[in-house]
From TrEMBL:
Classification via InterPro entries: C56_PfpI-like, Class_I_gatase-like, DJ-1/PfpI
Record-level GO BP terms: proteolysis
Keyword terms: Hydrolase, Protease
Record protein name field: Protease
């Protein structure tokens, strides 16, 4: 039996996402039975990752009702710097935070949580390159493969993906 059957997850996308940080969780979670919807600025749009791997969005931000979802994933790369400029994305992150639904963020994805203003007092990790940004937003930054602080699951980089997706799936299973 698939552990995540009946779970719905939003995977945010914009151009220049970190290919592995989108695809690895997407495939792992789907294999575990979850419905993972790729959601971007436009529906049925092709987005290209930093290393050239494309993905097509199923829906546009405006087309989904975030309350219908159990969790949200934010991949890293340069996409987070774009994603955090969309009010709809920040509203989704705040909704998930207020409702204590799992929020997964890896690498530069912390920028989205910073812009959503949800990191005050939270333990997180990220790529070391945005450590100062995370701490300036009030987060307690840890140099660990994965950090789980209640419903926020964070990770550093692609080498940590195994621990990250397992932790994310575990938190989602417990919800």
């Amino acid at each position: 039996m698939k552990a995540l059957r009946n779970k719905k997850i939003v995977a945010l996308v914009e151009s220049e996402f970190e290919d592995l940080e989108l695809w690895y969780p997407l495939l792992y979670l789907r294999e575990e039975g979850a419905q993972v919807d790729v959601v971007g600025p436009k529906a049925k749009e092709k987005y290209i990752g930093k290393y050239g791997v494309p993905v097509f969005s199923a829906f546009a931000f405006k087309d989904i009702h975030i309350a219908d979802y159990d969790a949200i994933l934010v991949p890293g790369g340069w996409a987070p710097d774009k994603l955090r400029r969309y009010p709809e994305v920040l509203e989704m992150i705040r909704y998930m935070d207020e409702n204590r639904k799992p929020i997964g963020q890896i690498c530069h994805a912390g920028w989205v949580l910073i812009s959503a203003k949800i990191l005050e007092g939270r333990k997180v990790t990220s790529t070391p390159g945005i450590r100062d940004d995370m701490e300036n937003a009030g987060a307690i930054w840890l140099d660990e493969a994965v950090v789980v602080d209640e419903h926020i699951i964070s990770s550093r980089r692609p080498p940590d993906l195994g621990a990250y997706v397992k932790a994310f799936a575990s938190v989602l299973t417990d919800k």
